[in-house]
Amino acid sequence: MKSKCLFFIIVLGLFLSLLGCSKTKTEEENPNILSIKCFISDLSSCADLAELYTDGDGVEQDYFKAAELYQKACDGGEASGCLNLGVLYYFGQGVEKDDFKAAELFQKACDGGQTEGCFNLGVHYADGISVRQDSFKSAELYQKACDGGYMSGCLNLGVSYEKGEGVKQDYFKAAELYQKACEGGEIGGCYGLGVSHTYGTGVKQDYFKAAELYQKACDGKIDFGCYSLGYLYENGYGVKQTISEAKKLYGTACDLKLQLGCEEYARLNK
Known about the structure:
By secondary structure, the chain is an all-alpha fold. Helices cover 67% and strands 1% of the residues. The protein has 15 helices and two strands. It has helices at 25-29, 31-39, 43-55, 63-75, 79-91, 99-111, 115-127, 135-147, 151-163, 171-183, 187-199, 207-219, 223-235, 243-255, 259-268, and strands at residues 5-6, 9-10. A two-stranded antiparallel sheet has the order 1-2. A hairpin with a 2-residue loop joins strand 1 and strand 2 (9-10). Helix 4 runs antiparallel to helix 5 (79-91), helix 11 packs antiparallel against helix 12 and helix 13 packs antiparallel against helix 14 (243-255).
């Protein structure tokens, strides 16, 4: 399953590929083999099989069966099972929605070395979902996720530093984290770094660089990336002023459900 994360809008669809490096491709994707291995208490195979049921990959999609298998894996100490079971509890798929249970499982996953679990739990603390809102705790968890190579953790930690939430406000540190996230494939980080270059916060003001980063964000379906690039084109900042291109970009932002993009597109279309 794929992880999704937009700048400032976090969606907890965070699943692992859960593939053991010693397995062949056939074994990874064969539900019969995984079922036999799970039966003899190969817990990683239980988690792999659960993912197939979650995705409906080679088997009929069955969240109830997936939850049962993730539970078995988690109970046996397979942290990835705890992580993905937590996601099911968060969304109420195959189990009754329970944010408290989700947070508990994310904590268990985080303690077991699953950095996505740390990130998800950080979001819970940032937003006060089933736990007391605690910006310091969320920043700590984002740091742990980032240090573990989970780029969404770096992105959200950057936001924490930019806003001064849970950490001392530091635009330089925020820009550094946005760059790390961007280079690590987290497109939201590219947008954040673009904003930093637009306003010269933590980095030298550079509209050319901002335009480049907004383009990357827009290509990655970040609505504000398209909107911000449209603004640069409309005003000729870092790019040649081109109203038609600005209108096109505002339209793309609108298609991505950004109301501001719709409003600017309508204004230029008059």
